[in-house]
């Protein structure tokens, strides 16, 4: 088997994308991810791996708890009674239970991590599978100063966003923790989509107007991570503030697009020197 002789299996693969993608491909996403997940844990267990980490999602949380922008942070125990995101959230919740059963019935060490919106350099930023921070960085980079960008929804919907560096450290810590129940992994720094646009615009040194398209998918009204259990288990939580992590993210995406990533006035100052 492909994982024979491997001690730790970090199962991060998935058919996934932004809200426009996961709300438009329920059948394909559910089928693809269920097959990926089941085959991965079965191969890891039967080939003698010691530990298996499954990358779940905050999309497993009940939609009835996420109807307000000023959302109460979601705790791990809030998952039931269940009402997950159709398709993507449902298959993630199903796989969480498989991890639980394999641990209980066969003693196979599993870890379940509920990601809350990961962003950073080297990620997808176009094509339909990008998440909000990358999509907004792309739109801001391609917009002229004084221009206009399109925002999905009214811009008041809220989320929290975790930098990829914190994500990598978090999954390693969780794998080493010995804790086999689901854990949130995200920040509790709540921000609106409009606020995210303003933050990226400030980084780019641009003044942009927003055009809100209410016909486009926008997901739940609000979602935030309760990190109480994460701190209890690990004595740690993600630490990179959004305003800090977006700087290298925006610069990398702008570079990929061939757009100057420094504000025009900063570039002029450098040129003058």
TrEMBL record:
Under what name is this protein listed?
A: GDP-L-colitose synthase
Q: Which positions fall inside the NAD-dependent epimerase/dehydratase domain?
A: 5-182
Matching entries from Pfam families are given as: Epimerase
Entry keyword annotation includes NAD: yes
Which keywords are on file for this protein? NAD
Q: Which organism is it from?
A: Methylorubrum suomiense
- Please name the InterPro entries in this protein's record: Epimerase_deHydtase, NAD(P)-bd_dom_sf
């Amino acid at each position: 088997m492909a994982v024979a002789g491997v001690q730790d299996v970090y199962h991060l693969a998935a058919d996934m994308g932004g809200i426009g993608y996961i709300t438009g491909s329920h059948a394909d996403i559910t089928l693809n991810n269920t097959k990926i997940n089941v085959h991965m844990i079965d191969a890891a267990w039967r080939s003698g791996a010691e530990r298996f980490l499954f990358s779940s999602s905050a999309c497993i949380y009940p939609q009835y708890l996420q109807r307000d922008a000023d959302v109460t942070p979601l705790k791990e125990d809030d998952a039931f009674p269940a009402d997950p995101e159709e398709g993507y959230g449902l298959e993630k919740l199903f796989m969480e239970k498989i991890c639980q059963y394999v641990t209980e019935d066969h003693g196979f060490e599993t870890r379940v991590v509920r990601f809350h919106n990961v962003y950073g350099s080297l990620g997808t930023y176009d094509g339909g599978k990008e998440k909000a921070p990358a999509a907004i960085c792309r739109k801001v980079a391609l917009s002229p100063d004084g221009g206009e960008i399109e925002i999905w929804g009214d811009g008041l919907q809220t989320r929290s966003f975790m930098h990829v560096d914190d994500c990598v450290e978090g999954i390693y810590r969780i794998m080493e923790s010995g804790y086999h129940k689901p854990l949130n992994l995200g920040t509790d720094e709540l921000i609106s989509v409009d606020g995210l646009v303003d933050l990226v615009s400030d980084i780019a040194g641009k003044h942009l107007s927003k055009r809100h398209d209410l016909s486009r998918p926008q997901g739940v009204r609000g979602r935030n991570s309760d990190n109480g259990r994460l701190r209890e288990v690990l004595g740690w939580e993600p630490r990179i503030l959004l305003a800090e992590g977006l700087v290298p993210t925006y610069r990398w995406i702008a570079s990929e697009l061939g757009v100057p990533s420094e504000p025009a006035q900063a570039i002029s100052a450098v040129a003058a020197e």
